[in-house]
Hints:
Blueprint: E1 8-9, E2 24-28, H1 29-35, E3 44-45, E4 48-55, E5 58-62, E6 65-69, E7 73-77, E8 83-87, E9 92-98, H2 100-104, H3 109-114, E10 126-128, H4 131-149, H5 155-175, H6 182-201, H7 208-214, H8 219-230, H9 234-252, H10 257-263, H11 269-280, H12 284-294
Parallel strand pairs: 1-3
Antiparallel strand pairs: 2-9, 4-7, 4-9, 5-6, 5-8, 7-10
Amino acid sequence: MPSSPLPIFHIPDFSPDTLDSSHFYFAQLKNHLATHKFIQKPHKHDFYIIVVFTQGKGSHTIDFKTFPVEPGDVFFLSPGQVHSWKLSADSDGYILFFSADFYTAAFSRKRLNEYSLFNSILAYPRLETDSAQAKEITSFFEKIDQENSQPTLFTKDLLRNYIDILLVLLYRFKVSKGSFSKQEKLIHNQFQELELLIDTHFKKHREASFYADQMSMSMKQLNTLCKNTVSKTSSQLILGRVILEAQRLLTHSDLNVSEIAYELAFDDSSYFSRLFKKKTGHTPEQFRNKMATNSL
C-alpha cells in the first residue's frame, strides 16, 4: 500500500450513474456490501450516512468505538468520521448517503444540525428501535427505494422531503429515550455549531479565541458552553480533535510520523510526538503498533 492519508470516499465512488451521483446514493445493504468490497477496510466519507439493519448481526466501529449490530439498529455517521464493520453473511437493510448540499437545497443547515443525530461528540451513533419503530423507519426507506429506482417529475424534491421526514422520526425516537429542556436544547445546538467549526478549521486554527469570534462569544462564554456540555475547556476540545485525527491517520494510513505531523500542520514533528504522548500516554509509534496488534 502506498504512503497516503486515510482514504476519503465521495458519493460518485459508489454509483456514478444514479439520479444525482454527486450528492445522493441509496441501496439495499446486502447489494451495497456485495458490490463495494473496498468499504471493508476503515475509511472516511465526505457525506452523511444513515444505515438501518433489518437482519444480520456483527459489529460497527466508529472512531475507535465498537458497537454491536442487531436487527432494528440505525447508525448515523457525519462527514469525516472513520468507520468499518464486521457483519454476518445474512446482513441486510438499507443504506443512504446524502451531501449537505443535497439536503440544504430545500432545508436549512441549521435544521440538519438541530436534529442532533450526526454530532460526533454528543450524539450516540447507534439508535436501537423497537419493532413498531423499525417498521415505520423501514417504510420510509422503501419509499425512497421506489422513488430512486423509478425517478419522475420532482423526484429529487420528494427524496429530500423523505430524508427530512426520516430525520424527524429518528430524532423523535431518540428523544423518547430521554427528555431535554428548552435550555438544554439551546446549549446542545450551540455546541453542535462549535463542533462543526472545529471540524472545519482545527488544522489551521487551534486558538480558542478564533472560535469565540466565529460564534460571537466571549472566551468565558465559550468555555462555559464547553464545560457545561462535555466538562472540558474549549482548548481541550480543539486539541482533542487534533489528537483524534492523528489517531485516525496512525491507525488507518501508511503515513510516517513526520508526514502525519505535516498533514496536521505541525512545524516540528518532535513537538507533535511529545504532545501526542502527553495526551495519550503513548508515542505515535507505540500507538500505531498497539492498534496494529489489536487488529490481528
